[in-house]
Amino acid sequence: MHEADEMARLIAQLQPQGGAQTSPLPGVSLFRIEQAVARAPVFYEPGIVLIAQGSKTGYFGDCSYRYDPDHYLVMSVPLPFECETRASPNQPLLGVRIDVGIAPLKTLILQMEESRDTMLDTETHPGAPMASVELDRDMRDAAIRLLRSLRDPVQRQILGPQYVREILFRALQGSQGSALRALAGRHGSYGRIARALRRIHTEYASLLDIDTLAREANMSLSAFHHNFKEMTLTSPLQYLKSVRLHKAWLLLIQDGLSVGAAASHVGYESPSQFSREFKRYFGRSPAIEMAAARGGKPDQGSSTAAPTSAPRRRSDRAALA
């Protein structure tokens, strides 16, 4: 059996229903999308996305990134962009996502430096915060071993974390490795802006002060804005707005909150302002979006949240795929 076919078979077995779902192995998610999804705003967290069947195209600025059975996506920072999905009920998109955590990334880089007896450069041409990378045999083999381990609780517990670590190692050796290394850097501008992005991503409902973020990054306000926009193609305030709106989308669609409750939860004082900005960003009002998701409209890529005792399902817009 061809390796890509085996990956697809394993994912289809592990994820028999449509949607995206976290696996029992922390940091690993599986997704199955059975309808084409038109180009729309999404928000991805740092991760590595491997596709076994079907394809996606991400649009960031003037660049497009296709990821499919021959290419995987590397996202080094939490980032809003636009994405479209090619899939059908007969040929669903099947894939796996591995989270990129800063702590394991730093540990692995340190071990690589010790093995090479030299420091890995974290500031030389870190590249774009997202990229499509050719899927070589080593990365594909590691992904297949990871998927196989998910079928057995003992293998998943003992071998699964090792395969996740190998996948991260392979990504560090790939063409996007410099951005991942820069992400873990302490002093470079890339790493400092990445830390600011992570703070915004986790404290989006707070009254975040841009001057404070700039000081914490050890940059002047103008330098902070310049480096921030160079990485994200948007301003800090626009980035914060996109984070809030995507978080609100999850609260509306998956958790069933009312518009007012979702707006308040993500930091909006005015529900009417929230509704205007939501419609401007996603193309339709929160009420229409909620009705479409509940009616099973295919262009939303959404799925019903699983019971709390089961792994939570998340939608395509929720940064899993």
Please sum up the structure shown.
With 321 residues, the protein is of the alpha+beta class. 45% of the residues lie in helices and 20% in strands.
What does this structure look like?
With 321 residues, the protein is an alpha+beta fold. It has 3 domains: 3-183, Jelly Rolls (Sandwich), CATH 2.60.120; 189-233; 239-318, Arc Repressor Mutant, subunit A. Helix content is 45%, strand content 20%. It is built from 13 helices and 11 strands. It has a 7-stranded antiparallel sheet. A hairpin with a 2-residue loop joins strand 5 and strand 6 (63-67). Helix 1 packs parallel to helix 3 and helix 3 (137-149) packs antiparallel against helix 5. The model is unreliable at 296-316 (pLDDT under 50).
Strand order of the largest sheet: 10-7-4-9-2-1-11
Globular, elongated, flat, extended or rod-shaped: what is the shape? globular
Number of domains: 3
Level-1 CATH class name of the largest domain: Mainly Beta
Mean pLDDT: 85
Helix content: 40-55%
Q: Strand-residue fraction?
A: 15-25%
Task: Please mark out the parts with pLDDT under 50 across 5 or more consecutive residues, or reply none.
Answer: 296-316
This entry's quaternary arrangement is single chain
Kindly provide the radius of gyration, computed on alpha-carbon positions and rounded to a whole number of angstroms: 19 Å
Q: What is the tally of beta strands?
A: 11
What name does CATH use for the topology of the largest domain?
Answer: Jelly Rolls
Helical run tally: 13
> Main beta sheet: strand number and arrangement?
7 strands, antiparallel
Structural class: alpha+beta
SSE arrangement, N to C: HEEEEEEEEEHEHHHHHHHHHHHE
